[in-house]
Amino acid sequence: MFLRSIVYIKTLIYVPVVRNSFLIALVLISVSFFDSCAKRNSAVSTSFVEGGNTFQNPVFEPVLADPTIIQDPKTKLFYAYGTQDNWDDGQGSRLVPILESKDMVNWSYVGPAFQEKPSWKGAGGIWAPDINLVNGKYYLYYSYSTWGDKNPGVGLAISDSPKGPFIDQGKLFDSESMSVPNSIDPFFIADNGKNYIFWGSFSDTPGQGTFALELSEDGKKVNIGQKVKIAAGDYEAVTIFKKNGYYYFLGSKGSCCEGANSKYHVLVARSKNLLGPYVDKEGRDIKERGNGTIVMQGSEDIVGPGHTSGVITDAKGQDWIYYHAIDKNQGKLGNGTSRRMLMLDPLVWEGEWPIIGGGNPQTKQQKKPVIN
Fold first, then answer.
1. Hey, how many other C-beta atoms are within 10 angstroms of the C-beta on 290?
2. 211/88 same-domain check
3. Phi then psi for 178, rounded to 5 degrees?
4. Mean pLDDT over all residues of the chain?
5. 116 lies in a domain?
6. pTM of the prediction?
7. pLDDT at 51 (0 to 100)
8. Degrees to nearest 5, angle at CA 258 with 253 and 264
9. Which range of residues forms the domain containing residue 244?
């Protein structure tokens, strides 16, 4: 990021005063070379004009999949967390990477949330974390799973700081204890003095779907057997937020992780009650497969947008949301990791229904969030 900033300034200052055409060509080649090097950096915030009032997606690359974001109320800094991934930079697999930003668009890598994998499961990756401030501490709910896992589960780690270290609290539940296949993708929400966790992922087997469950007052335990079905098993990566008297459900469908061939997209439904029923714009209950209203899908250049973060409202009242998406021309890293970049777009309202980024990932310059 620092290198790209220097190259950008050099271009502005020196190119206009060069007279010789050969020197001009040499400068332009040098700028192109250094910019290319910076793009290959393992931790690059691509919104590099820090201090300006515009930005351009992606806001971080090469990878921050399944993003979850929080603002520290003390420092006012923002922190982003993502699925465990190997960025193909020789540093190995980062156990839930943490990013830091002061303006929501310029991000720097802090380090991993975990120093070692939790011990309550024998094998798997730490996926789809969800960060929350609960009782003055940072609660990181996370998934522990392998591809095709018959008994994945959800755990909790806690820290006094958004930077960690996060201390594992163990398993909340798994698929066997909940009788819910593919028990991953947790999402925490507090409502009317109670804590809830939503979870669930793709499945077409009996018991499939997204479910909700009330948590204990301290958010560390679940009430086994009290789950409520929210959506069918063609959804995953649930986000719930409240606006104008409605609870809005955002969920992702399609393939998340096939590089340039990814078909991820985001749909919405809403309810007057946190626990549903949630219906789409046509009044169809999303507990039935195939229902939901599209709010974002891929474009010609950027594919597989999905797994939204919670909604953040800036100082001017504009709603913003993060998600990951893939550059069709750079679908995977050299090691095969899907290049799921961190994206940020406004949540725009058309009547009582939201659209993300105009319905497609935006890559043009746009105004930055207004931060106090």
1. 9
2. yes
3. -95, -15
4. 89
5. yes
6. 0.87
7. 61
8. 20
9. 59-367
Residues 192 and 232 grouped into a single domain: yes
Measured distance CA(271)–CA(87) in Å, rounded: 39
Helix (H, G, I), strand (E, B) or coil at 38: helix
Residues 235 and 250 sit within 8 Å (Cβ to Cβ): no
Task: Give the Cα separation of 14 and 16 in Å (integer).
Answer: 6
Whether 92 and 17 share a structural domain: no
pLDDT reading at 42 higher than 50 = no
pLDDT at 125: 97
pLDDT above 70 coverage of the chain, percent: 86
Same domain, 21 and 123: no
DSSP letter (8 states) at residue 142: E
pLDDT-derived band of residue 277, with 50, 70 and 90 as boundaries? very high
More confident residue, 91 or 20: 91
Strand partners, 140: 131, 157
User: What are the beta bridge partners of residue 197?
Assistant: 188, 213
Asked, for residue 51, whether it belongs to a domain, the answer is no
- Report yes or no: 274 and 247 within 8 Å, Cβ to Cβ: yes
The DSSP secondary structure of 341-365, one letter per residue, reads EEEEEEEEEETTEEEEGGGS---S-
Same domain, residue pair 10 and 156:
no
pLDDT at 35: 41
